Amino acid sequence: MQASAARSSSMLVTKRRCSSARRNPQQVRPRCVAEVTVRSEVKSKSKPSFDFNQYMKERATLIDAALDKSVPLQYPEVINESMRYSLLAGGKRVRPALCLAACELVGGTIEQAMPTACSLEMIHTMSLIHDDLPSMDNDDFRRGKPTNHKVYGEEIAILAGDALLSLSFEYIARETRDVAPERVLQVIVEVGKAVGSEGLVGGQVVDIKSEGAGVTVGLDTLQYIHEHKTAALLEAAVVSGALLGGAGEVDVDRLRKYSRSIGLAFQVVDDILDITATTEELGKTAGKDLAVAKTTYPSLVGLERSREIADELIEGAKSMLTTYDPAKAAPLYALAEYIRARKN
Amino acid sequence: MQASAARSSSMLVTKRRCSSARRNPQQVRPRCVAEVTVRSEVKSKSKPSFDFNQYMKERATLIDAALDKSVPLQYPEVINESMRYSLLAGGKRVRPALCLAACELVGGTIEQAMPTACSLEMIHTMSLIHDDLPSMDNDDFRRGKPTNHKVYGEEIAILAGDALLSLSFEYIARETRDVAPERVLQVIVEVGKAVGSEGLVGGQVVDIKSEGAGVTVGLDTLQYIHEHKTAALLEAAVVSGALLGGAGEVDVDRLRKYSRSIGLAFQVVDDILDITATTEELGKTAGKDLAVAKTTYPSLVGLERSREIADELIEGAKSMLTTYDPAKAAPLYALAEYIRARKN
Predict the structure, then answer these.
(1) Domain ranges of chain B
(2) What is the DSSP string of A283-334?
(3) For the whole model, what pTM was predicted?
(4) What mean pLDDT is predicted for residues B129-135?
(5) Which of A82, B8, B123, B241 could form a disulfide with B102 if both were Cys (CB 3.0 to 4.6 A apart)?
(6) Which of A84, A172, A201 to probe by mutation at the B interface, max B CB count within 10 Å?
(7) How far is residue A66 from each of residues A135, A331, B202, measured CA to CA in Å?
(8) End-to-end alpha-carbon separation of chain A, Å?
(9) Which residues of B touch A137 (CB under 8 A)?
(10) Distance between CA atoms of residues B235 and B194, nearest Å
(11) What residues in A contact B195, CB-CB < 8 Å?
C-alpha cells in the first residue's frame, strides 16, 4: 500500500476492503489517509486545451457549496454536525462531477443535476462512515481526519449514515427542478439499485465473504466485487446525469457502457498499482505485504494481461464518446485518461 | 415493563430506548419479545359491526405477501436472507395498514399504496435492526427471535439495514402504478423527512442524548422524542396513503392532524401503562424498576393529567374523520380506539 496507489485510491476513495487493517484493526492505513494530488499530466489527448485539474477544482467548489446547503445545522445539532463532518471533509467529488458532466453532455444544465450530484456524495459518505465502524473495517482515520465514530461515537455514526442515506433520496425528490417527474423517479430507481443488495451493499457483502483463510476467489467473483463496490455508483452518477439532462435511450445506453468501463478499469488499474508498488516497496512499509494475499487481477491473469484489460476498457469507454461535441465530452474523456495515466 | 405494556408496545413496536437494557446489555427485554394479542374489545364504537382484529389479520396477510416479493432471494443470498429474516419476522404491520387505509379512505386502491406500504415496513425494520446493534441497544432478541446481528453478524446487520433503507425509496419509485409521478415524488419526500435527522433519526439522537446521569428532560424534549421516534413514521404512513389515493390539500391536512394525534397519544398511553404496571409489579420483575427513572408524561404532569392528554389526543384524532364515509373511516377510527383502550 504505497504512495501512488494511495493517491489513486483516494481519488475515487475506492471501497475495497483492506485485509491488513482488518487483521490489525489498530493500524492506520495510509491509503485512507493520503491526500489526493491530481497530476498535471492527466489531460485529455483529444482536447489538449482542456485543463482537467482546473476543471475538477472548479467543480469541487460548486459541489461543496451545494453540499454545505444540503444539511443545515439545525436541532438536534449533533446529528447534523456529524453528517456535515464527513460530508464536507473534502475529496475530489468525482461522482458528483461525473453526474454534472453527463448532464451537460446531453444538453442539460448544472442546476438540473446538482441535487442528484449531492445525493451521490451523501451515499458515498454514508458508505465510508459505515465501512469505517469498529464492526466493519475499524478505521480510525479517513482523509487525514479521525473517522466519524471516533469523533461522535458509534451510535451517532450509524445514525448519521442512516440519515445521509435517507436524505439522499429525499433530496433528489425534493430539490430537482426543471426535470419531468417521471425522469426524477427513474433517477431514484437508478441510484437505489446502485446502493442496495444489487449494488454497493451487494459488493461489500461478497467482499466480506471472500476474506479469510481457505476462501478461493475467482475472476467472476472479483469482477462482481469491483462492479458493485466501485463501478455501480459511478454508473449511477453518469446515467442519472444523462437522464436529468434529457438523454434518450441511445445516449443512456452509450453512457452506461462508458461508466461501466471506467468503473471496472479503475479497479483493474488499482490492482496493478497495488502489486507493482508492493513489490517496489516490499520490506519498507511493515505489515503491508499482507495485502498481497488478496486476490487481484494481476494475481489471477498476470500483470501484462491486466494492463491489456485496463487498456481495452479505457479504449472502450472513450469509443462511447465519439459522437458527442468534443468540448462537452472533454471532462469524460479526461476522466478516462486519468485512469489510464495512473498506470504510470 | 409488564405484560400489558409489552403487548401494547409491540403492537407498534415502539422505539423508545430501554434504559435498563442499556445499563445491563445482556438482559433480555420481555417488551421486545412479547407476542402481540389484539384484544377483542378493541372495536370502533361508531361502527360496532367492524371487526378490527379480523381486518388487521387480513391486511397483515396481504402485506406479508407483498413484502415477501419485495426482497427476492438472489445472489448474494446472505444479505437478502438477512433482510428477509427481519422484514418477514411478523408483526401487526400497523404502518402499512395505516397507509392502505388512508389511501382507500380518500378513494384510492390497495394496489396504489402497496409499494409505499412495503417501504414503510422496510424502514421500520431497518430502524429495529440498527437499534438492536451492540453499539446501540445491544438487544439479543426481537419478537422472540435472535436479533439480526446475532444471526448474521454485525457487518451484515448494518448492511442489511442500509440495503432495506435504500430499497424502501427505490421501491416506491419503481413499483408504484397508476399514480401521477409528481405525487410519487411527494410521497418520497414525506417518507424521507420521517426517517432522517428531522424524523426518526432526530428522535433517536435526542433520546440518546437525554439518557444518563444528570440529564434533565422537560416536556418539550419528551414530546420531541415521541413525535420523531414514533409519530413521524405513522404520520408519513397516513399522509403518503392519502397522497397516493389522490387526496387534496384539505384531506391531507386533516389526515396529518389525525396521524400526529394518534402517534403522540400512543406514546402518552405507553408512558401511563409503563408507570401503572411498574407500580403493580414492583419487586416481581427484578431490575425493571430502573425504567421508572426515565422521564415520562406521568412523571412530568402526573397520571391524571396524562390520561386527560391521551383522551384529548384521541378525541382530536377522531374529530378529523367525521366528514368521511364511516365504513371507509372505520379502520382509522378503530386504531384510535385501540390506543384509547390500551388505558385499561
Answers:
(1) 3-23+45-341
(2) TTSTTGGGGGGS--HHHHH-HHHHHHHHHHHHHHHHHTTTTS-HHHHHHHHH
(3) 0.85
(4) 96
(5) B241
(6) A201
(7) 32, 20, 22
(8) 16
(9) none
(10) 8
(11) 162-163, 166
User: Which residues on A lie below 8 Å from B181 (Cβ)?
Assistant: 180-182, 184-185
Q: Which residues contact A320 (CB under 8 A, 6 or more apart)?
A: A254, A255, A257, A258, A261
Contact B173 A193 (CB under 8 A): no
Which residues of chain B does A205 touch, with a Cβ-Cβ cutoff of 8 Å?
76, 78-79, 156, 159
Work out the angle between the directed axes of helices A110-131 and A77-87 (0-180°, nearest 10). 100
Residues 244-303 of A with CB under 8 A from B: none
What is the C-alpha to C-alpha distance for residues B100 and B241, in angstroms, rounded to an integer?
A: 6
Asked if A130's CB is within 8 angstroms of B162's CB, the reply is yes
Condensed to tens digits (0 to 9), the pLDDT of residues B71-90 reads 999 999 999 999 999 999 98
Please give the residue of chain B at the shortest CA–CA distance from A149. B135
Superfamily (CATH H level) for B3-23+45-341: Farnesyl Diphosphate Synthase (1.10.600.10)
Helix (H, G, I), strand (E, B) or coil at A272: helix
The backbone torsions φ and ψ at residue B231, rounded to the nearest 5 degrees and listed phi first, read -75, -30
Contact of A48 with chain B, judged by CB distance below 8 Å, is answered with: no
Beta strands in B145-210 (DSSP E): 145-146
Query: B262 versus A7: which is more confidently predicted?
Result: B262
Mean pLDDT of B232-257: 97
Interface of A with B in 84-113 (CB under 8 A): none
Q: What is the pLDDT of residue B338?
A: 82
The torsion defined by the Cα of A91, A92, A96 and A101, in degrees rounded to 10, comes to: 170
> How far away is chain A from the Cα of B185, in angstroms, using its nearest Cα?
5
Residue with cell 406514546: B267
Q: Tell whether A220 is within 8 A of chain B (Cβ).
A: no
pLDDT at B48: 53
In CATH terms, A3-25+46-341 corresponds, of 3.40.630.30, 1.10.600.10, 3.40.50.300, 1.10.3720.10, to 1.10.600.10
Q: Given pLDDT bands bounded at 50, 70 and 90, which one contains residue B342?
A: low
At A33 the pLDDT is: 24
In B, minimum Cα distance to A78 occurs at B205
- Structure-derived torsion over alpha carbons of residues A331, A333, A335, A336, reported in degrees to the nearest 10: 170
- The residue in chain B having the minimum alpha-carbon distance to the alpha carbon of residue A153 is B135
